[in-house]
Amino acid sequence: MGTNKRKPPATVAGGPKERHKRAQRHGNGSLSPQPASGLGAKRPLPKPKDKHHSYLEFVENKDRKKKLDFTNIFTRNPPEGYVFIPVGNPALTNFCKELSREQGVKVYFVSVREPHRGKGKASPEAYQTQNCGASGTQTFANQMSRMGFHFLSSIVDKARECLSLDPIADFVPGPSQAPEPIPESQTEYHAQVDGVLRDLFPRIPNTDRQIIIDHAFTRRERYRGEPPVGLSTSMTLARRVQLAVLAHIRHTHTRRVVQTTCLDFLVKWRGDEETGRDQLEEILREVVVISDSEDDESTDDEHVGTAATAFDSPSAR
């Protein structure tokens, strides 16, 4: 029999050497020195390839304005304490809007469309029906019939004072539906139209505004001798401007959008391509089987009379 050599005893788990190692270890099991508490290491930011770069961030909008409190109104007569300001003076209108916005005063947008003539005097309800919806919402007639604003009289006086407007020389007429005469000077007329355009449509692009003025408010020889809407003497200047803007939008911005759809309908209705039902080689037929048995648990051996009804479907397979 050979002698069995005993192995040396293992290090006691609770020995001094083992306790020293456990004291030196950190939470991640590493023996390397760790940074002091409170000094969290941050991942370095990626270095951009280019020297100059840009990024987006959210910042406070310091140019934010208070919302203007306004209401659409269908009468030319201003409420008590208010003054009517017709369109055509964008500087005065904008100043009154800003003062009203800062003071939280309500502004009235006046949109009045005269009813058809020859039917007598219309009631206020008739004006409201033509210009506003059932709940006072915006309508197309409302947008095309704006003629001015009702501002608080004290705000108008302060705006005149700040803009150095002479109450006599810069007199603003009251509400009227009488058409204004067209000046003989083309330059003067263009200046009037430009003021109304800026007042009614303050966000219209400069290019579109200039095209409207040149096309609809300039005297020149016309096709078939018909004058444009801007030279009509039977409507007010505000009405002429709004109709000219609408015609420009239809001609320039919406015609290209609807042209493709109109072409599709023309081709479809004309039928030149012969793509109708009578040109299909096969059609899909739907067959509906109606059982005359009330027993849902009947087996295949039971013969139940059925009736088959066929319906032609216009779709092709």
Automatic annotation (TrEMBL):
<dbReference type="InterPro" id="IPR018744">
    <property type="entry name" value="DUF2293"/>
</dbReference>
<dbReference type="Pfam" id="PF10056">
    <property type="entry name" value="DUF2293"/>
</dbReference>
<feature type="domain" description="DUF2293">
    <location>
        <begin position="197"/>
        <end position="255"/>
    </location>
</feature>
<feature type="region of interest" description="Disordered">
    <location>
        <begin position="1"/>
        <end position="51"/>
    </location>
</feature>
<feature type="region of interest" description="Disordered">
    <location>
        <begin position="291"/>
        <end position="317"/>
    </location>
</feature>
<protein>
    <submittedName>
        <fullName>Mfs monocarboxylate transporter protein</fullName>
    </submittedName>
</protein>
